Amino acid sequence: MNFSDIIKNSVLEKFQAGDLTTTTVVLTLAIAVAAGLFIYLVYRLNSRSGFYNRDFNKSLATLPVITAGIMLAMGSNLTISLGMVGALSIVRFRNAVKDAADLTYLFWSISAGIVIGAGLFELAFWLSLVVAVLTTFLDLLPVLRAPCLLVVSAQDLSAETALMECVGKFCRRYQVRSRNVTKRGVEWIVEMQVRQEGELLQSVSALPQIQSLHLMTHDGDVRF
């Protein structure tokens, strides 16, 4: 018996020793189902109503079960293990993730299935608990108010001084992002953070030479 035969026999013995039993399969899949339902609940509670995707959440709940099943199959049979590696290497996922936080839940769901499929149930429990607490805690942290964009149109550039003085009364920090001068007039785009939006609009609209104004806000990224 040469060295290659020794390696081959040791690998085959390892896979033969890991033959699945009904108890192992049922216990592993049951724990994977529990982990999937837990991830489903955490994602539903932490997701904003405007960005909640029920189909994506159902995928998160089923991924631990599927991944755990794959891990059980790969750990019990060498042929299936090699086949899975080849099959998964040609899979392409083209569904775009709209929210960056969804990537965290997606990786969490897959990781939980891998850990459960490997039989590390205690690690899967603490992993899911720590990730759930951390994501919930970070979601509850207060954030700064998102910046607003004030778009103002006037007859000529002489209105800029009065406009900036008016904006300065309501905003500590503001910055002119754009000045667009045409034959019809001038347009300013001012970035700011303001709480008294109604009073600001009323004050700016009362200025002479002001033709129109628009205030745009969003719930996206904020600047610290």
What order do the helices and strands come in, and which of them pair?
Blueprint: H1 3-17, H2 22-46, H3 54-76, H4 78-89, H5 100-117, H6 121-140, E1 148-154, H7 160-170, E2 174-182, E3 185-192, H8 197-205, E4 210-216
Antiparallel strand pairs: 1-3, 1-4, 2-3
Helix pairs in contact: 2-3, 2-5, 2-6, 3-4, 3-5, 5-6, 7-8
Describe the structure.
The protein has 224 residues and is an alpha+beta fold. Helix content is 59%, strand content 14%. The protein has 8 helices and 4 strands. The chain has helices spanning 3-17, 22-46, 54-76, 78-89, 100-117, 121-140, 160-170, 197-205, and strands at residues 148-154, 174-182, 185-192, 210-216. Strands 2-3-1-4 form a 4-stranded antiparallel beta sheet, with helices on one face. The chain starts with a helix and ends in an 8-residue tail after the last strand.
